[in-house]
Amino acid sequence: MNVFEDIGDVFIQQFAYVGGLSGQFWSGLLALPSMLPITGKRDRWQSAIRQMAAIGVAALPMIGIMALCAGFILALQGAAELRRFGALRYVIDLVAIGFTRELGPLLTAIVVSGRSGSAFSAEIGTMMVTNEIDALRTMALDPIEFVLAPKFLAALIMVPCLTIMCNVFGILAGAGFMYLSTKMTLGVYVRYVFDSIVLRDVFSGLVKSVAFAAIIVQVGCMEGFKVRGGPEAVGRATTSAVVKSTFLVILADLFFTALFYLTGWSTS
Amino acid sequence: MTEPIISVRDLSVSYDGNQVLDGVTLDIEPNEIMVLLGGSGSGKSTILRHIIGLERPDSGTVLVRGVDINRCSPAELGNIRRSVGVAFQDAALFNSLSTEENVGLPMRELTALAEPVIEIMIYMKLAVVGLGAAGKLMPFELSGGMKKRAAVARAMALDPEILVFDEPSAGLDPIVSAELDELILFLKRAFQVTILVVTHEITSAFRIADRIAMLYKGSLIAVDNKDAFQASNDPRIRQFLDRVPDPLTQSAAVQDHMRELAGLTGAVR
Fold it and tell me: In chain A, where are the structural domains located?
């Protein structure tokens, strides 16, 4: 087999993967109404609530700590340069805009991918190995509706919520830095924050976070559904889910950032 | 003659170029217990997965209640699946649900029954398989035999016309295995269901079967009642029934491998 055939094979596999992911995405989207409390199927929304607790509430401490650290690091790095020009105040802009547009959604997505994306693939992969997915199908229950949709709905709601919390913690870390370096009070800091960001910054971050949530759930679940064989296949799927979803999240981030830049959304 | 409830016609399946099933034709009559016997790798699990519609064949048809399950609409397939209960080899209970939630799942998802009615039905299904007091237990708290019986209760949840068992005796001690055989016979008597059992346990097969079909290397070599099957002179059936091992060093694959190892192509006879 020559090198062109190898390259062709890789491209075909990647297109097939993206095609499978798109098909699963639409099936998941169509299954979402069955998750809703009144119009949905009996008790199915409770499953979505459990997933929300697992994806969102349980991830909050880790996201809080990571955002505080990242916010402080960003302020320190920014201050090191801005201090030379007597522009230390612009650390506030750097942290506020940096988190709302970029770091908040990205940090949140990386944490959720590592915690929940891997858990989705491990759970579904184990269900594949133990024939639980086959059992669902033989009972005329759709695994997409039964297994994927609660996770999908939960992630679509919780990842933007976590992103907002990540933004808050990151910006608060900036407040801590400004207090330590200039004795700036929280009230003044918050006023500067509101001067530096506009609603559009927050909104663009939230749009990204919804896309990241969809990627993490779809990739995590797809890697799980692809599991064949035994426990080692589950381990491989878990690793693959985290690597692929993180990669796709960064690609999507680039896409949305470029889109917002070209359409003038990201200019103040 | 009655119309077969399951009819497999010229079913051929291959994976990566390996022929797993080769033109298998099998009819299963209503209210009979058909045992599908065969050694490891004979294709019996593959035929089961095709009968319950989990996989599509390369060629051939599978008719369940007269409906071709590979060419019917999703709604028809849903109806067929509701009429077939499957008890998997490793039970395939949902680990996040209790035993009673596992049994109640098909009722809650696929019927409009009121919750009190479902709870009564769950208890009845569990009582039939002898697990009336185990409803609150989680699957990890059940023994191997209890798990299999819970899987039977779940398979019976929607009162199916057909029950399918994949290796029901696998991994069980002889006493529990015999109890499960008795349960299968009881289900047939009490509920008039058609039962397909895939197994390699000869003792169990002769205890429960009305008819036995035997798969050998992907081909169906016999379908007969158990007395005729037991009296068969077919050397492949006799080898299986008399538990005669394959002479390992005479197989072509082993011979070839030994030649490769020795670097003496053609020298080993």
Answer: 3-262
Give dist(CA B97, CA A256) in Å, integer. Answer: 40
Q: Of the candidates B79, B92, B110, which has its C-beta nearest A135's C-beta?
A: B92
pLDDT digits (tens, 9 = 90+) for A124-147: 999 999 999 999 999 999 999 999
Residue B109 is part of which domain span? 89-159
Give me the total of CB pairs closer than 8 Å, taking one residue from chain A and one from chain B.
51
Give the separation between CA B99 and CA B94, rounded to whole angstroms: 9
Q: What ipTM does this complex have? A: 0.85
> Around Cβ A158, how many Cβ atoms within 10 Å?
24
The model's pLDDT over B50-105, given as tens digits with 9 standing for 90+, comes to 999 999 999 999 999 999 999 999 899 999 999 999 999 888 999 889 999 999 99
pTM of the model: 0.86
Picking from A46, A131, A225 by the largest number of B CB atoms within 10 A of its own CB, the best residue to mutate is: A131
DSSP β-ladder status, B162-166 and B84-87? parallel
- Spell B52-83 as b/e; 16+ CB within 10 A means b: bbeeebeebbbbbbebebeebeeeebeebbbb
